Amino acid sequence: MAPWAGAALWMLNPLRVVWLALAAAFLLTLLLQLVPPRLLPSCALFQDLIRYGKTKAGAPPRPALCRSFDVPKRYFSHFYVISVLWNGFLLWCLTQCLFLGAPFPDWLYTLLRILGAVQFRGGELALSAFLVLVFLWLHSLRRLFECLYVSVFSNAVMHIVQYCFGLVYYVLVGLTVLSQVPMDGRNVYVVGKNLLMQTRWFHILGMMMFIWSSVHQYKCHVILGNLRKNKAGVIIHCNHRIPFGDWFEYVSSPNYLAELMIYISMAVTLGFHNITWWLVVTYVFFSQALAAFLSHKFYKSKFASYPKHRKAFLPFLF
């Protein structure tokens, strides 16, 4: 790789600044939740913005103004509709470039350059970004299926700010993947002009990790959904119960842990060394850890018989 390209990999471009800022914000938020409540002043709005669904039950009393910005938690499905459509479009554009030699549209190429995409000359593998974009699209498609046919949503809510953030998130994460494609002008640069010749051992490892993590996340969502159904699969209530089975034997929120593992599998697929994507993984780690910690507190406060050996997010650690 040319020296200028190596320097470009380390500099803070707009995408890296965004992901670094998000990771730092969620790390700070998580640390604040670990501080004893008596040491910090209570802020209903702050708690309202970081909690959603069942964890809002453990927050300070919510003013009427806060409740006026509620949207149903079942709107989670909208995130995946957007992701399937948008990231499906990005995948189609990349496929056109890789297999038909078509350049990126002017507006998309300009957007990628604004966000910090640079011109690589063989330092990155186009196959890596292609596979990660496929993984992201498949992940979103599966999550949409789960929201529609597996999960059983109660009348729980989330803040409209969280809803808007979720919509923007899946647009931004797709652009982040696409920005890692090696470019030659508006065209994708393919080493050796044969995409399959780029196959490396870490592509296979990343794919195996992605499938493994996705299967476990699906199992966890099925377990949660079945807690509200009878043996015939009919929804009988929307109450919370203690889940058991699979990774629930180790942590309270294995679905969040699986989400982290899915993003780590993408980092592996990109060859371990992609700084931008590791910043995405860092954000996912702290955001999922925060959600898992709040969920763990909810379960412990609601069920006196809650398994004491379970951790919130990381088995045996946290």
Query: What topology, given as strand order, has the largest sheet?
Result: 1-2
Number of extended strands? 4
Strand content: under 5%
Radius of gyration: 21 Å
- Total number of helices: 11
Shape, per Cα inertia axes: globular
Low-confidence stretches: 1-9
Strand count, sense and closure of the main sheet? 2 strands, antiparallel
H/E order of the elements?
Answer: HHHHEHHHEHEEHHH
- Kindly name the structural category: mainly alpha
- Alpha-carbon distance between the termini? 40 Å
Report helical residue fraction. Answer: 55-70%
Rounded mean pLDDT score: 90
Can you walk through the features of this model?
By secondary structure, the chain is mainly alpha-helical. 59% of the residues lie in helices and 3% in strands. The chain is built from 11 helices and 4 strands. A two-stranded antiparallel sheet has the order 1-2. The chain has a two-stranded antiparallel ribbon with strand order 3-4. Strand 3 (183-184) and strand 4 form a beta hairpin. Helix 9 packs antiparallel against helix 10 (254-269). It is globular. It starts with a helix and ends in a 16-residue tail after the last helix. Mean pLDDT is 90; it is low at 1-9.
